Amino acid sequence: MSxxxxxxxxxxxxxxxxxLRRVSVxxxxxxxxxxxxxxxxxxxxxxxxxxxxxxxxxxxxxxSPPLFIGQRSMLLRGLSARENLxxxxxxxxxxxxxxxxxxxxxxxxSARVGASSADALxxxxxxxxMDQPVERLSAGERHRASLARxxxxxSELVLLDxxxxxxxxxxxxxxxxxxxxxxxxxxxxxxxxxxxxEVDADAVARLHMDGGALVGG
Amino acid sequence: MIARTRLVALRELMSERRHPDGLAAALTFTGLxxxxxxxxxxxxxxREPDVASGVFWIAILFASVLLSTRSFDRDLEDDAIDAIxxxxxARDALYAGKVLALVALLGIVALAAGTFSIFLxxxxxxxxxxxxxxxxxxVIALPPVVVLTGALALRVPARVAVVPIxxxxxxxxQLVAATQGASAALQGRxxxxxxxxxxxxxxxxVYTVLGLTIVPAAVE
Lengths: 217, 220
Prior knowledge:
The structure holds two protein chains of two kinds.
Chain A lengths: L4 E10 L2 E11 L2 E6 L6 H9 L6 E6 L4 E3 L11 H12 L10 H5 L9 H7 L15 H9 L1 H4 L4 E5 L7 H14 L5 E5 L10 E8 L2 E4 L1
Parallel strand pairs in A: 3-7, 3-8, 5-6, 6-7
Antiparallel strand pairs in A: 1-2, 1-4, 8-9
Chain B lengths: L1 H17 L2 H26 L2 H28 L3 H6 L4 H31 L7 H14 L1 H10 L6 H12 L1 H16 L2 H29 L2
Helix pairs in contact in B: 1-5, 2-3, 2-5, 3-5, 3-7, 3-9, 5-6, 5-7, 5-10, 6-9, 6-10, 7-8, 7-10, 9-10
C-alpha cells in the first residue's frame, strides 16, 4: 500500500538554524506517534508534511490535503468558533450539512460531507459558547474548538501537534476518541506528544526525533 | 477558486465588521489628513485641484497599507493563517480574497474621505462622473500591490516597516495616475481624466495577475 505522506531527504533551515536534517520518512495508514525533546524538530517535521515550511532540500509527497491542527488554535479572532469551522470546512470543500445561514449558504457552496460545525462543537462541549467570538473563549475552549475540526474536515492525513495540551481529563478522552475515529479506514494520523505514553499502544509506528533528525522508533 | 476567493473576502469583511479597528483607524487618519491639509495650505491653496486630489490619494494610499497590515495581523494571531495555507490551492484564493475585501473597505474609506473633502474644501467637480470613475479605479488599483507586499513580508520580523518600504515605490505610478486623473476631472478635462483611468485599470490588471502568479510560490 502506498504511503499517505512522505518526506525524502528533507532539510529545513529557518533563520540560519538547521531545524530538520535530511529526514526521510513514510507515513502509512494508522497512528504514527512522534516523540522527542523540546527543539528536536517535531513541529517542523509536522509542518513540513503539511506544506507549511519550505524545504531547503528534499521533497514532500502527500496523497491528499492534510488536516493540520497545531499547538495554537489557528482560529481567526473576530469570528465565532462555529464560523471559523464553517469557513475552514467550506474552504476545504466540505461544507456542513443543514446549513442554516452560515458562510457556506452565503457563498452558494452546496452541502456535501462532514459533520455540521454546530454538532461538532457540541460534541466537544462547546455548545453554549460556539457563537461567541473566539477571543472570548478560554485557551482550553479554543483548543477544543480547533480539535473539533477533526469532525468537520475529515481527511486522509491528520497531523496533530500536541493535541493534549491545555485540555482537562474530559478533553483528553475526547482527543483519544477522535484519534480512534480519525484512524478508521485507511486514514493516517501523525501525533506529536510529550505525554500520554498509553497512546503508543495504538500506534503502528513510533518515531523519535533529536537534533532535527529521526533517531529511531 | 472563485468560491474560495469569496469565502476569504467574506471572512475578512466579517472579521472587520466585528472588530472595525482597521477601518476606524483608516477613516480617522484620512479625515484628519484632509483636515490638516486645509489648515496647512490655507483655504485657497487647499482647494486647488492638484493639491486636493494629491492629498486625498496619499491619504487613501496610507489607509490601504493600514487596512492590509491589520488584516494580516489578525491572520497571524494564533496562527490562523496556517489553517488556510495548509489547504490546497489556498494561497491564490487568500490573495484574491484579501484584495477583494480591501477594495470594499477602501471604497468605504474613499467615499467618506471624498465626501468630507468636497464639503470641507467646497470643491465643485466639473466632471463628477469622471471623478467617480477615477476614484473607483484608484481604489481597485491599489490593493493588488498592497496585499502582494503584505503577503511577501508575512513572516518578516519588521513587517510594519518593511511593507510600506516595499509598497510605496511600487505605487508611485498609480498615485500619479489617480492624482492627475482626479485633478483633470475636477477641472473639466475629460479626455485627460479618462486617459489616466486607462492607466489605473492597466496597473490593476497587471498587478492582480502578478500577485496571483507570485503569491502561491512565495508565501510561507
